[in-house]
Design a protein that fits this description.
By secondary structure, the protein is an alpha+beta fold. The protein has two helices and eight strands; from the N terminus they run H-E-E-E-E-E-E-E-E-H. The longest helix has 52 residues.
């Protein structure tokens, strides 16, 4: 009768399992980073939709102008700021901040309708000027693009992204942090 081997794994078996797990992890890491960037993009788009809807509701409730604008910090609107620096909802009459969204992740890009620095809702809930399109995407990934549109009537919704908008957003340079 042959002697019984004690239960457990040999060092060679453990090394092989660790090597396979390490290889699988190394292969999955880039895909995980991409999935995380797409998740952050969806969260940013939802936050923007929420901020715009909050601004409109606040304008209707208070019966005066409320704006959503890119922020240089949590308190200041800036026409030079890019939307990737975050945005604030500002009550124009009372000069108070209603809400603020922090800076977006490094891989995210935002393009807006040229010439429009902010979105302002009147006391009747309408958005001043023409339709505003804000396109969000992951850098160098046009297929990830999402568009948020504010119509003249003040209604906020997502919209399919136009191919030229997706390409421009994905090619946009990173902003200074």
């Amino acid at each position: 009768m042959a002697p019984r081997r004690p239960p457990g794994f040999t060092l060679t078996e453990l090394a092989a399992v660790l090597a396979i797990a390490g290889l699988a992890g190394a292969l999955a890491l880039p895909a995980l980073g991409e999935a995380l960037a797409r998740y952050r993009l969806r969260v940013a788009a939802d936050d923007l939709l929420d901020a715009l809807n909050l601004a409109r509701a606040t304008a209707l409730w208070r019966n005066h102008r409320v704006s959503v604008c890119p922020a240089t910090d949590d308190l200041t609107c800036s026409p030079e700021a890019d939307w990737t620096t975050g945005w604030i909802v500002r009550d124009r009459e009372k000069t108070k901040i209603v809400a603020a969204t922090p800076r977006l992740g490094e891989k995210l890009r935002v393009l807006r309708t040229p010439g429009r620095q902010e979105v302002t809702f009147t006391g009747r809930g309408a958005a001043s000027a023409t339709n505003q399109r804000i396109v969000l995407c992951v850098a160098e990934r046009p297929a990830t693009s999402l568009a948020v549109v504010v119509g003249n009537a003040g209604l906020v919704h997502r919209d399919p992204v136009r191919p030229h908008e997706a390409a421009a957003c994905a090619a946009a340079p990173a902003r200074q942090r």
